[in-house]
Design brief:
Elements: H1 11-14, E1 28-35, H2 39-50, E2 55-58, E3 74-75, H3 83-90, H4 92-115, E4 123-130, H5 137-149, E5 156-158, E6 171-179, H6 182-195, E7 199-201, E8 206-210, E9 215-219, E10 224-232, E11 248-261, E12 268-272, E13 279-283, E14 300-311, H7 318-332, E15 339-350, E16 356-359, E17 367-371, H8 377-392, H9 413-425, E18 446-452, E19 455-461, E20 467-471, E21 482-484, E22 489-491, E23 498-500, E24 505-507, H10 517-521
The structure holds flavin-adenine dinucleotide (FAD) and FE2/S2 (inorganic) cluster.
Amino acid sequence: MYTHAIRRNSLWTATATVPQPGPLSADIQADVCVVGAGIAGLTTAYLLGREGKQVAVVDAGPVAGGNTQYSTAHLTAVLERRYADLERLHGPKRVRAAAASHAAAIDCIEGIARFERIHCDFTRVEGYLFGAPDDSDDVLDDELEAAIRAGLWGVEKVAQAPWDAVTTGPALRFPGQAQFHPLRYVAGLVRAIQRDGGRIFTETRATAIEGGYPAHVYTGAGPVVTADHVVVATNTPIDDRFVMHSKQAPYLSYVIGALVPRGSVPRALFWDTEEPYHYVRVQPLSPSHVWQGDEAPGTHEVLLIGGEDHKTGQVDDQGDRYDRLEAWARERFPMIDAVRFRWTGQVMESMDGLGFIGTNPLDSPNVFIATGDSGNGMTQGTLAGMILTDLIAGRDNDWAKLYDPSRRTFKAAGTFVRENLNVLQQYRDWFTPGDIASVKELAPDTGAVIRSGISKLAVYRDARGNLHQRSAVCPHLGAIVRWNQADRTFDCPCYGSRFDCYGRVINGPASRDLARVWELEAGLRRPEPMFSGTGLTTDTSW
Ligand SMILES: Cc1cc2nc3c(=O)[nH]c(=O)nc-3n(C[C@H](O)[C@H](O)[C@H](O)COP(=O)(O)OP(=O)(O)OC[C@H]3O[C@@H](n4cnc5c(N)ncnc54)[C@H](O)[C@@H]3O)c2cc1C
Ligand code: FES
């Protein structure tokens, strides 16, 4: 059984039931094996199934148990990197294609929801981008011009974002954006995939992927999936050792969900230009959504406020970030009643602001990846389905080159160097003392990293006082993990692998748990050397 020890629960998991088919128990064959049942993997499986392909989806946990459940589900062509910057990096022609592709992804979600009769609260709304307090007027003006050049329809500057309580100052208005309930949508995809003959397996971790004809996906419990094509939709590729991870950086983002009286906040998407930026929207509730009985059905809805992003594993004030988010929200939305939800999730920020969809660099041509989705993973995951379905069917796709994982964006070289130097610096943890000198200092329900000879241990004392110890060396490329008290996780500051408090992997690129201490002592598992992993692509050392 796959359990997350993280004390977090998104609004979506509280208000939707997603079918969970169960594990793979025998070898199978398929036309396409999709690894990962988030929005990217399921959209790909759905669209391939509509074309008559036999699809098998395997997921290490439950369906949508990854970052899809932590989204705030803004569906927008207003890209996180912003158009003025994207134009500088990619030039006007490619940026027009990026805008058109994300708009098409929103249309695709709308079309699927309508065709499959998925009741996922899909609604067209406007988006508003407003300035940070100390921004000059130029920031919005430049963005307006770049967005117009990118072909965004109807964008204009208005004097104020449409909420009464606070003066936002000028804002850009983007018509034709959308929002939905991501888990209800995903649940509808699962039902449609199964209806079309697709097979979905949960609690089935892929431990190695071998390209070539046929390709093989090996799973932790033993069964093997043989397929003509493999799509690795694990949010960050688990079949790549270094190349793709050096092109993107993992960031944790924080969300609170607060009850507000129905209709008190306009139904729209809001973003500001702060660094890190805030993102806001409202999710309606149906009368059946009563969790604890102190709000009347139909009288409230949930205001979702996100922000406070930071590089994974590189801060120690995670708990304070929720408080800062709430203070920011209460100042601007005085109608907030009670905060009901707090959660975090990880986004992969690509160096040049666009995602990566296509064949995995240095791998066989029949192994595909989808990653680097930044804060636009709902549309990016949908685009992955649209593009990869064409590529697998042998058709041209107008956007395939734009999102090619092998592309080089020379104007993003500065970000590339900065982010990868930052990664190298994280290895200094091999030489620093532990967080505490002895496990005796650990209070119940807390964790730490302690020194053990030349290496380090990740230790957690559970609420009953039992001690759980694992190697603190991340199985991906040997960095030392760090304790995150807010989520009860050990987070890797290198490329964003995350482990629960018992050392079980919950986020790649690592695909193995932290090593057990007895495994190391018995020599059953080689401790990862500090700079292991010179292999550039598929990790076959499992
Ligand atoms: C707080 C937050 C807010 C966000 N808000 C927005 C937003 O408003 N709009 C937007 O467009 N995007 C948003 N995003 C981004 C978006 O939610 C994600 O990019 C998107 O959900 C990622 O989908 P995915 O399918 O690629 O990955 P995931 O949903 O993470 O799915 C990957 C799946 O792969 C599985 N997996 C991993 N390793 C293995 C393995 N070895 N074997 C088998 N399975 C494996 C996991 O269990 C998981 O189910 C937000 C993200 C966060 C964290
Ligand atoms: S994620 Fe690469 S070493 Fe941890």
